[in-house]
Automatic annotation (TrEMBL):
Membrane disposition: Multi-pass membrane protein
One function term, GO molecular function aspect: transmembrane transporter activity
Organism the protein comes from: Vagococcus zengguangii
A Pfam family it matches: MFS_1
Designated name of the protein: Multidrug efflux MFS transporter
GO cellular component terms listed in the entry, alphabetical order: plasma membrane
Length: 451
């Protein structure tokens, strides 16, 4: 019952990470904002999740499981109510931060809970099924959101998720137990502030590279502040007897590789998930429903692959799985480099399906593989680090790829406005192909016996 509740909750809340990508044109029009500002409703959501996730390592080991889980649901619910009734961008952005905070707590808790209550021999399979909610939901969300926007309006997206969260809250109150050990420990405010400044500075700095000069404060300045804060944060953790976030987990090579691999995967996944609807709606001028339907084959592929990803990991090992997944990811992104304004949207749908197959194969196996190398007493820290870093990577991917696409298009002189926009899209996916090759390099460097 706990597992089913976690899956339903994560499907509903994880959908919110990308649901607004399809609805963004309608939201931007309604709130009188431009697309660059509007995309922060998605990248800002991921950024807020990434900031709160390091905090979850403390919360999970300090507060009873049931109370913390219910608190996460209530935070998300308040955010949903505010989003559904928002009349301006600041109000909606604040509501998105509340949603992300609740989802960040729940996502980190879910993985620690499942890795604790199930024995090692079942973790691969159970994390594969859990991966269905974590990986398929962000991809299927634009499809559902597109249909909702065309049939009703963008606010209805939040009302639908609100109903699911209320049901999940009532269910959690009935079935949840305090399954994780807790201990009394002091909250390190300085470490939390440093991690928040570091992650937000890094994300904002990189995300603004496509909009501002690298030498400006908005880009290079924010990036420097973020890096300095993270360096101070890391040095502080090694000096504390009870670290806010125990970085000793990085001493394990396989865990470190799983974190880097997850970050690269999220960078491409969130970037492509945001850009595909913009290609269909903004560049080609098609409907939100068609945009969602183009993403549908990928959603179905991921829904099929995610539950069996754990078994694939057990059978093939992480090395072969990573190599095959990285090749699929590279080919799918490279294919988008060659499309033009005359290319059928069916091609984009098929390439997206190939991309989703790769993501479904790799997302949860990376978590299972990395977590299997972490001692039980460091499980909460290892999970919090992995989930926060990959979420930050997703926020960076959303911000930087949208900015790059618009920046390249605005400086292109290949022909008409449509041709320039297509050139921006092509070059952005070419960059994604290069990132996918880095994932292939990781796969080739994994030891064959690593599982």
């Amino acid at each position: 019952m706990i597992f089913i509740n976690i899956v339903i909750t994560c499907i509903a809340l994880t959908m919110l990470a990308t649901a607004l990508s399809t609805a963004l044109p309608a939201i931007a029009s309604d709130l009188s904002i431009d697309m660059t500002t509007g995309q922060w409703l998605t990248s800002g959501y991921s950024l807020a999740m990434g900031i709160v996730m390091p905090l979850t390592a403390f919360l999970i080991t300090r507060f009873p499981t049931k109370k913390l889980y219910v608190s996460g649901l209530l935070l998300a619910l308040v955010g949903l109510v505010l989003c559904a009734t928002a009349t301006n961008f600041p109000m909606m952005m604040f509501a998105r931060v509340l949603q992300a905070t609740g989802n960040g707590i729940l996502t980190s808790m879910a993985q620690v809970i499942l890795l604790t209550i199930y024995p090692p021999e079942k973790r691969g399979s159970i994390m594969g099924w859990y991966g269905l909610s974590l990986s398929a939901a962000p991809v299927v969300a634009p499809t559902i959101a597109g249909i909702i926007v065309d049939l009703s309006n963008w606010r209805m997206i939040f009302y639908v998720v609100m109903v699911i969260v209320v049901i999940s809250l009532i269910w959690a109150l009935k079935v949840f137990d305090n399954v994780l050990d807790v201990s009394v420990k002091k909250f390190d405010v300085v470490s939390f502030v440093l991690s928040a400044i570091g992650f937000s500075g890094l994300t904002l700095g990189i995300g603004n590279i496509g909009t501002y000069s690298f030498m400006s404060f908005n880009s290079g300045g924010m990036l420097c502040i973020g890096l300095v804060a993270l360096i101070i944060f890391a040095l502080r953790q090694f000096k504390l007897s009870q670290p806010f976030l125990d970085l000793r987990v990085f001493k394990n090579k396989e865990y470190t590789m799983s974190v880097v691999g997850s970050m690269l995967l999220y960078l491409v996944m969130m970037g492509s998930t945001m850009i595909l609807p913009l290609y269909i709606q903004t560049i080609l001028g098609k409907s939100a429903t068609l945009s969602g339907l183009v993403a549908l084959p990928g959603s179905l592929v991921m829904a099929f692959i995610s539950p069996i990803a754990g078994k694939m990991y057990d059978k093939l090992g992480m090395k072969l799985l990573t190599i095959v997944g990285a090749l699929f990811l590279t080919f799918s992104n490279l294919g988008m480099f060659f499309i033009n304004e005359q290319t059928s949207v069916i091609v984009a749908g098929l390439l997206n399906a190939l991309r989703c197959a790769a993501i479904g194969c790799l997302m949860m196996p990376f978590v299972t593989w990395g977590s299997s190398k972490v001692p039980q007493h460091l499980m909460a820290h290892g999970t919090a680090l992995l989930t926060s870093l990959r979420t930050i990577a997703g926020a960076i991917g959303t911000a930087i790829f949208v900015s790059l696409m618009h920046n390249i298009a605005s400086h292109s002189q290949v022909g008409s406005t449509l041709a320039n926009e297509m050139h921006g899209l092509n070059m952005t996916f070419l960059i994604m192909s290069g990132i996918s090759v880095l994932l292939l390099v990781i796969g080739l460097s994994i030891k064959k016996e690593s599982r």
